[in-house]
Amino acid sequence: MNESMKAKWTAPVMINNCEIHCPITCVTLGDISLDNDVKLIVATGGHRGLNMKLKVFKGVSPHSESSLADVPTAIVHFVNDFSSMPSIAVASGPALLIYKNLKPYYKFTVPTSPINPVEAQAWTAAQSDKISIEELYTVLNNLSSQISISNLSPLSQTLLLTPEKDRNAVVERYLHKQMSNSATITCVSKMVRSSADKIDVFLIGTEHSMVYLVDSQAYQIIGCCSVPSPPVTICPYGNYDVDFRLIVLTRDSCVYSIKRDQTEATKPIINSASMITSIIRINKMVVYTTADNTISFNTLKGKKINTIKCEQKVKMLEVFEYTQKQYTAVLAMFEKEVHMYNESYLLDVLKFDRQLAWIKYGGYGREEGALIICFKDGSVNVRMWRRLATFDEKMDFNPRPPAHSIKLAIPKKTKIFIDSTVREKDNAAKIHSAYYKDLLLLRCRIAEVFSELTQSASTVVSTDSSLPMELSADVDFRLIVLTRDSCVYSIKRDQTEATKPIINSASMIQLSMNSNQ
Amino acid sequence: MEASNEDEIIGVNSVENEESADINQEQKPEDSADNLNSSSASASHDRVSSAPRRIELLDCNSLNALMYHYFSQEEYAECKSLIGEVLSKYAGRNEFALNLRGCIARIEGELDEALDWFTQAYEQSGKNHRYFYELGRVNFLLGRHSIAVEQLEKAAKAMKHNSKVIYWLARAIYHLPPTKIKDKTINPVQMAAEVLKTSPALSSDVQLVGFLGKLLEELNDFGGAVAAYKKGIELQPDNTEMMIRLGLLYLRNSNVDDGFTMLGQCLAYDPTNTDAILAIGSIMQKHGDHDVALNKYRVASDVCDYNGHLWNNIGVGLMAREKMAAAHSALKKAAFINPLNYKISYNLAVLHDKMQLYASALHYMKQTVDLAPKNAKAIGALAVILSKLKDAKNARRSYQKSLETKKTRAVLMNFAIFEYHQGRMQDAWGYLQEFKSLKADRDEDGGNMNSTAEILEKVLASSLDKS
């Protein structure tokens, strides 16, 4: 890459004292204190369940943090009220935990899905003491072997997984409460309500294959739609009050487009043969990347515009939008590189010396156009988009030198080859007859020795099929050189001088013409 | 404090917990939030105060999203450890975790393990037939095709609209042994094609269409295969693989023009596609356009250096341009990559012959004959080289062997000339007559040989008359 390409981003600045290990879904950028200073917000500790924290970074240093009670699945920064502070929503389990100023503020739980009738009946019967706890357990256990335990309500799952001595306690505690079957949240994102007032609407996907639209002011469900498989990512287009499309990627690698008031999505707009690993919406394009290293650009209706075949695994995609120059592009993260593409060109390449974990693009501090780069080792860099950087320079997706500049890499011939060629040209018939004479002699000799061996030492040849003779061969590079005076020299690797011929008369001739030594 | 801490953890996942109004809000956001959540405030609670045990409502699906995230990022080590945790926490009853673990095992090539995981997932799912799809695919990879067919058929019934199931079913059927049913022989290729044709997804799924095209090609249904590939290109106009296959199919059916167009179209989409370059280069070389072909090969060799056929074609191209040393290097490289391809050693032999290195030419021609013992042309060429090495006895034997394998005009002609040089006019006359009785092939350079035959006939006639 030349200098002008490198200069698109400023030199990286490292955030001090920070080690972040979390999936990209638990990262967001936003202002949390009404001072128009955008901060980096992450929910960490997701995996091990230890040290679970909501951390905020301002500028190049940690700002504040707050502990979390449960494993976070995703977080989103949103605005629901202009007068008060922006909030953060942390999805964990079936609930969305709302934080204002890093203080817990509200908990929204996804509405319950229908409970299996047999299961509900069993619990009702247990409530009215018609069946005992043991019977309840048996009914639920049988049910779980008919339909999966994953399809039962959390309460029934708990009962089935509790050891026998604790079952009474579980039942007593929960028996007289209202049963609910709220599904775990799989993904959450936001969409503005209208372009006039930028208040957000939550988009929540659940394990029970539902997509909910939730008003962020009153926490009312304002829309829901079922999809055939649990959603992985929801990308909104448009705004709620006018018109919108939700581009939903599901676990079976299908992409659905959901309109307003649609309650069931059945026909995918994109059905990829290979697993879709990441999806984004940029302008009027849906861009996704698959497990076989391609990035596809599609219209909102799923029609393919272009495909990039990459040489490495594309880890994730991120939207690049620079409003001042109206630039939009796709940032594709690889193992140690970040490429910037639009639908027809490669625009920029960033290279790193360490493995990347995730990238996040957005405003940071008071600046627009920051790229937050998190490495596998937990360190985080920030780079800013240069104000003077342009997209004037464009490259093909997989830049290749033009045909005329490539040379065929034909191996050169050595002097030995030329010499032996000249010699063979002159004495072809002689070489041929000598070769055949010696081949015959060699065969004769082998036959002689073999018959001798079979008669004298029987151990050399295995007569027992269960104990086959073991043969091993050591292969090394060796050059057999026949000189004018009919001496054959054997030259080993790295040998610089051959003095003692191995054979004086040309008994076996092998012209080695492929040697490049 | 200890007890109150435990209280805090109670019902973290639950919707119905509301008994912890007294706790510190700083630490327990969702409990305080819960108070606002009116939906769950109605139930009365009777607390088991005697045993303040930690009772959490469990949902075995709670970490599925995270597991899927790691899986899609190909972070299998992380994913496996998370799955291990989930399985031990939920007593191995999370079907999604088991399914993902199976997928990882399959990707890592641990097929027996994968089979085990998928079977467990199937058991946990309440015998959901969807898992027969995964099981069938693993059995397919293990080469147990008949089991795979059974399982995939069940899966196809369970998932009627999934074209991937049909695809794998067809592939499994394709590999079945030909005689399967007692009364009549059933051609598995035919069967697989039938399965594909009856699938409703055929008109929209490129994978199915492409495989159908391949099957029809094998069934020698040229028209059908062309139609299938055309449909595939119509569905995905940038599918270069379809274009190559269609192009090669045209070439095989000696429709060079359409084949050339199709391959050219493929190169327009992907100028570095080595398959297309090789095919289109070979067409050019057939028409003697070696310079353009070599130009094309430059790109191909840059992308894919380790390709014997490519270097063979480069070698032939260089040979045609009389660059013998370079041609030799290229062909040697080709032979190094593909040592068992007789065409490469044949070309090497021809090259050595052209360079008057007859001993080496003989070596490579012998190799060719060893690799392709039924090739009369190679044996005939061997005879020519032997005669140049003045080994008349072996040369004659080779000629005879070649004619035994298959009578070709070129070999007969060479044999006649050889016998003439050896002074056996009568034999030469005989072979010449035989040569004349054979009809010329389509793509043979007849004129040159016929004129040689006439000259030889005249010479032989005069010398026979004398004797």
UniProtKB/TrEMBL annotation, chain A:
It comes from the Eukaryota. Pfam families: BBS1. One of its GO terms (biological process) is non-motile cilium assembly. SUPFAM superfamilies: WD40 repeat-like (SSF50978). Residues 9-259 form the Bardet-Biedl syndrome 1 N-terminal domain. Coiled coil: none annotated. GO terms for molecular function: patched binding; smoothened binding. GO terms for cellular component: axoneme; BBSome; centrosome. PANTHER family: BARDET-BIEDL SYNDROME 1 PROTEIN. This is Bardet-Biedl syndrome 1 N-terminal domain-containing protein. It comes from Caenorhabditis angaria.
UniProtKB/TrEMBL annotation, chain B:
Gene3D superfamilies: Tetratricopeptide repeat domain. One of its GO terms (cellular component) is ciliary basal body. SMART domains: TPR. InterPro entries: TPR-like_helical_dom_sf, TPR_rpt. PROSITE patterns: TPR. GO terms for biological process: cilium assembly; protein localization to cilium. Pfam families: TPR_16, TPR_8. TPR repeats lie at residues 206-239, 240-273. Residues 34-43 have a biased composition (Low complexity). Keywords: Repeat, TPR repeat. Residues 1-48 are annotated as: Disordered. Belongs to the BBS4 family. This is Uncharacterized protein. It comes from Caenorhabditis angaria.
